[in-house]
Write a structure and sequence with these properties.
Isochorismatase-like_sf; six-stranded parallel beta sheet; single chain; Cysteine hydrolase; 221 residues; 22% strand; alpha/beta; hydrolase activity; binds tricarbonodiimidic diamide
Amino acid sequence: MTARSIAAEPFDLDLDLEKTALVVIDMQRDFLQPGGFGELLGNDVSLLRGAIEPTRAVLDAARAAGMLVIHTREGHRTDLADCPPAKLTRGGKTFIGTDGPMGRILVRGEEGHDIIPELYPIPGEPVIDKPGKGAFYATDLEAILRGRDIRTLLVCGVTLEVCVHTTVREANDRGFECVVLEDCVGSYFPEFLRVGLDMIKAQGAIFGWVSDSKRAVDLLN
Ligand code: TIU
């Protein structure tokens, strides 16, 4: 038992470091680099890049502390059998599964689907391949967390209002306490970033806490 407290809003959160995991959500080329799914949807992907360095600092500290680190990737089987028809036409066009400069868009095994080099997983770190926005839907994430008796999640990733929110809401309903690190998440919409963080911590931490990379590194050192 390594009882600690992380400085956070709306109030500091007590946690056990041995029962805490770092979850890095969908830091994939398809969302962060030109030519991927994010850009095809009409977004300026450079808006997400500010989250990379702070996430790297937390990742380094978590690895040094021996904390469980989990990565997720959004994407689909090569035959798209796990992609609902309604998702195929997001943006009013069919992008998922079509050819792009980094391979087939949001398809497992393609270059664009993989995690950016700056945050690449190291051996032993579970990588959760998920067909949905949430990391619990149709994955073994919950089994992995329960198997390690994890209670608290430090959360980084993109985009805040889509896959990060969905995952944190799913985690909260399963009884996990989530701390979203505000400089380690990104959005294509600056106003969504601000309001999305406010939504999490409003009403006395209605579905989570908000902290940042510096306070997470302080926790881990
Ligand atoms: N489009 C958008 O903001 N996000 C996604 O489609 N997926 C994730 O957030 N990972």
